[in-house]
Every structure is written in C-alpha cells, then in structure tokens.
Amino acid sequence: MLKVKIILTILILSFFAIKSFAQETNIIPYLKKVETGNKQVVLNELPDLKKDHPGDPSILFLEGIVTENGQNAVAIYKKLVSNYPESKYADAAVYRIYSYYYALGLYQSAKNYLEMLKKNYPESPYLDAAERKIPVKDELTSEDKVVKKQPTVKKVEPPKTEKKNLNYKFTIQAGAFSNTDNALTLLKKFEDAGFYSEVKEKNVAGTSFHVVFIGKFLTEDEAKKFLDVINARFSLDGRIVPITE
Hints:
The chain has 10 helices and 5 strands. By secondary structure, the chain is of the alpha+beta class. The longest helix has 15 residues, at about 220-235.
C-alpha cells in the first residue's frame, strides 16, 4: 500500500495548491477509500458520480485510478490531459502515463511524457518522483522482479520454446496491470492454452505494474508470427520486446 500512500499524499498536497479549481469535485475521500482497500466501493459509486458530474476531470481521473488494466487507464488519463489540461489532476495523469510507459520499457514514450510534465507543469510535485535516467532503447531488463515464473510447458505452441539452453532474444509483452490477480489471471489463460508465460513486476517511483509476457523466441520474425496468433486469440494488443539479460 506504500505506493498508494505516496500518490495520495502528493494528490492531497496538489489539492491545496495555489491554483483554484472550484468547479471540480473533491475526490480525496474516494482516493482514501482506495488507499484503505475499498476500491470496489469506489467502483460501485463511480457510475453515479459520472452521472452527477458529467465532464468533471476529477471524476475522470478517479476512473483512471480504479481502472486496473494499465492500457485502459492510460487511455483515460490521455483523455483528461487532452481535454482538461488545466485540471488539478492533469499533472498526476501525465505522471501516471509516464510511469506506465516506463514500466513497459517504452522509454521514448516515457521520455515524451516526462518532457510534457516538465514543460506544462513545472511546479508539479511529481517531477521529483519522475526524474530518472531513461535508457536510450526500449528494453526488458533483468532487473525486473519475477512475480511468478512457470517452467516451459511441453505443448507450448511458440516455435522452439520447449528447447533448452537456446539464446532467446525476443518475447511478447501481452499486458500490464496494477492488480497482481488480474495479471495472474491472464497468465493462467496462457498456461491453460499451453503457452509459456510469466509475470514481472516493474516499479516506477512507487507505482507498481504487473507485466505479462508470453513466449520466448530466437528471431523477431518468429515472434511476429506468434504475435498475430495471440493478439487475435486473446483480443490483445501485444508487442514484441527484446530480452536483455
């Protein structure tokens, strides 16, 4: 819960910042519910909040906070930043987009949003949390913490993944989740289908994402062929990433 407390502390400080956004709903009580493990309560209340406060960027931000699929949450944050750049939570949304891309190893995208944070929100308390040396190339590093790693299954469909001691160079990044259970649910779907899969936790300035990977491949062409299969079969938007030891 430390990551949630850090973010909540920053959000509370931001709420009392110099700029006044009286037209936005105070979502701090709902953020506190999330912090204390009552996310489902907020999810249950969210439809009424959206109905009672249409077009409220704070409610939009709250929706992003409780959206566990990272890709869907980022889409919400991007909508907030694009439509409500002066919202009290706009900088927080930019920071969370940055964190998501950094966690996935999409460093150029992460850098773009870090630059946006610096340029558009120079007084943001998130700048200190976001500052880090961003690698030049997108990559999957060996520093990632393995949440759960399954041995190779014999009936694995990706070509050659059942062979031992091969110099695998690519894998497929299938999804990222803020909730471990959701990541492990996707992993189980892959395992049940006979695919090699693992989940790695990536932490970015106190924000954790659980990234699901499927398959190991010797060549990028080999990975591309399998990417089309799993994207269609599981309705995913996966991408090929290099494995860097």
